[in-house]
UniProtKB/TrEMBL annotation, chain A:
Keywords: FAD, Flavoprotein, Oxidoreductase. SUPFAM superfamilies: FAD-binding/transporter-associated domain-like, FAD-linked oxidases, C-terminal domain. It comes from Geobacillus proteiniphilus. It comes from the Bacteria. This is Glycolate dehydrogenase. One of its GO terms (molecular function) is FAD binding. Residues 43-222 form the FAD-binding PCMH-type domain. InterPro entries: FAD-bd_oxidored_4_C (IPR004113), FAD-bd_PCMH (IPR016166), FAD-bd_PCMH-like_sf (IPR036318), FAD-bd_PCMH_sub1 (IPR016167), FAD-bd_PCMH_sub2 (IPR016169), FAD-linked_Oxase-like_C (IPR016164), FAD-linked_OxidoTrans_Type4 (IPR051914), Oxid_FAD_bind_N (IPR006094). Its cofactor is FAD.
Automatic annotation (TrEMBL), chain B:
InterPro entries: FAD-bd_PCMH, FAD-bd_PCMH-like_sf, FAD-bd_PCMH_sub2, FAD-linked_Oxase-like_C, Oxid_FAD_bind_N. This is FAD-binding oxidoreductase. The keyword Chloroplast does not apply. It comes from Geobacillus proteiniphilus. PANTHER family: D-LACTATE DEHYDROGENASE, GLYCOLATE OXIDASE SUBUNIT GLCE. The keyword Oxidoreductase applies. One of its GO terms (molecular function) is FAD binding. PROSITE patterns: FAD_PCMH (PS51387).
Amino acid sequence: MRKRPIATNDPHIQALARIVGEQAILYRKEDLMAYDCDGFTVHRHLPRAVVFPNSTEQVATIVKYCHEHDLPFLARGAGTGLSGGAIPLNGEVVISLTRMKRLLHVDLENRRAVVEPGFVNLKLTNSVAHRGYYYAPDPSSQYCCTIGGNVAENAGGAHCLKYGVTTNHILGLEVVLPNGEVIEIGGNGVPDPPGYDLLGLLTGSEGTLGIVTKITVRLLKNPEAKQTVLAYFDEVEDASQTVSDIISAGIVPAALEMMDQTAIEAVEAAAFPVGHPKDIAALLLIEVDGISAGIDEQINDILTICRRHHVREVKVAQSEEERARWWANRKTGFGAMGAISPDYLVQDGVIPRSRLPEVLREIADISRKYGLRIANIFHAGDGNLHPLVLFDASKPGETERALAAGSECLKACAAVGGSITGEHGVGIEKKEEMRFIFTDEEILAQTAIRDVFNPKNLLNAGKLFPTPGRCVETKQASSTVK
Amino acid sequence: MLSMAWIEELQAFLHPEQIKRNESFHPLGNDGAVTVYPQTEEEIAAVLRYADRHGKKVVIAGRGTKRGFGGQREQADILLSLEHYAGIVEHAAADMTVTVKAGTVFGDLQRALAPYRQKVALDPFWPEEATIGGVIAANDSGPKRLGYGSARDSVIGLRVVYPNGTVIRSGGKVVKNVAGYDMNKLFIGAMGTLGVLSEITLKLRPLAKYESVVLLSFPSGDIHDIRSFSISFLDTMMEPVCFELLNPALSERLTGRPVYTLAIGFEDVENAVHYQEQWVERLRPKAAEMSILAGEEAAAFWRTFYTIAPNGRLARVENGVEAAVKIGVVNLDVLSILRESVLIADRCHVRIEAHGGLGHGLCQAYMHGGEEGVSAAIEELRQTAVRLGGYAIVKHLPLSLRQRVDVWGGKPSYFFLLEGIKRKIDPNKTVNDQRFIGGI
């Protein structure tokens, strides 16, 4: 941040600058451009200002100021969110928590750690790895996304099939409420604090109920052993049936991931190719962990199931290095789309696992209908699909078509009793699609809860819930998703 | 009795045999002038709608195991029993999910899932009497919470009948879902103060192929020995489903040995279970005595274990009163709570059987003694918990004592939010009024 004297007539910006200091606020248009969207780039809007508090007290003072002056505001972490939760639709004051990035406390005997919201997810695991511990939720963006953002979105990841998503690992929160009041829930990590489960409610509330300023998380001990299997299939159907059978055989893999042919084409053209055959229809990446004495039995069962479903080739990783390569190939899968398409849009539907074959067929139909390629790269084990709609925003009308195709994929998920989002959140992107799964009454039941915390609706307004009366927002889809 | 004419009005939506007038009331309170037994969600909604419109108070019950948990009244107007609202709605075995009506007995549910080698990963008390709805509403969990997680980790969807009779769904039928607020969490452990749980959808886990319980008893009674063994074992890569310390009084009842005993449970393939048992053997202090209960013996141990807590369904207690207290602290502080339980029992002249999980931080203390002694013991235990940064809530106590002892132990600083949520959903305080923290 450049050191320039505050040069604006906006009294609110001057007031905010007094709270955080002149070096910790951005308000010039050229500086604000970087904050006009997050990982969902179809909508953009400039914030009024971006402030960088360094303490809970500063956050509370900023919020109190906004509350008193009726200024819309929202919190932002690393900006990796994929549904537009941090986009300042209403010209919000953006409260960036990236300076609050300390690891405050580690207590391995009680398996917990306390972090500030700007602390990066992967850094937590790296900080305790030497003692054999880790933090379980592992979104693909974990090398840069913040734990505060993970709490807001209830982030998942490849390994939540066995270990659960963020909400299963949060023990305590310090929260600045939308009126600036600071509360602490769950204190030092004591389980089941008496009262309604506000930890559970706040986690995944997409930054609409409060701003988290301190987080107590659970740490896990590394599993004793880990085995990773890669299986190539000639038919998508066979791969999906394998997924179903593994789950119903009573195996709980740590991760069970699938990629289809288009996705494989992309990852092989990108930064971490591993030499997957180009002509296979689908691959499965399966990881099993636990007590070493029990692993072989599970691996044998998995290999048997793969063979029963005509697997072309199946192999077990022979080294940690090989395993790491397979995972790097998978985890950078979204970004890899850039290698085969100028733009892409990622969706996040969830279905009952046994419906995988029919829903994948339906997605293929949607792809044909809209004349757009759709790659599938997803958490098959928990039925969490990520259809990636490939498009070229420079071609007139194609962005709109991509959005429509994405929405139709979600409709297909909802139709089999699924959900419109498994880990990316609703944000701006899917708020109209909420109607696919909730009635108006059920949506009102949720906004009634929001009103308890956020009665003025100044905090992150216009997210998560459909606009009453279905007046669809048609802000022009400006550009791309990279 | 002129005020009882309204009971006739219930016949507009219930059959006469679904309505029972009560003459005498239970010493645990939480009774009703009338008990109703709805058999459908529409009937539940009709009862609530009627009550909400006519200013009647409703107490919600499954089969009554938790009747002594919270509540300030001898009787409300209507006791809404879900006993006759039971059964599995849908078991999607291939998806490993089940949807079940709230009045289903927990053990019945597990037995229906067992042929598919599946289970609900929860281990509540009194599984053969408690209903799944009660387990979820009271957020009950046992020692295996360490490996299983708690209700909030298993529940993926709910149908809730709001006090005004509206049915609201939360979550769904998929195992991963972040669409909208995670409203499931609001109702889990809400003690029925936000509505009636109608249907519950849970994710399932495979039944373990093999299980055992290692009992490790510490005749020296030296808490430091237990502590250092526990720290070193929990720092290994072993995966016990429970790591529960029993105080000497409870150990005597369950194992015959009146000394501190660790019950360490393993569930995995047989090889992996034996391998982990060997780790216990290798790390245990030489003075500690170790025995292993395998297979059916382990199952029998747990069957007994889950019936040690007071049960609101059972006949009244002879010679004094019973209480159950749940204490939450940071994991290893469980050691301090259990040691205190022994000292407090002596000081207050009551019997206290207690256990707590060193891997999850929850303790349960069961008391039996005179009214004064039990009240004093609860207070002392609470002070100890609060000093450690934790809390103590009373899960079972006769009504007369609940009116004197604060069941929930004061209000958190953010109580206004809890109150605000209650007001939004149940503005007339129709359901389970005063059953929860701060008189919610």
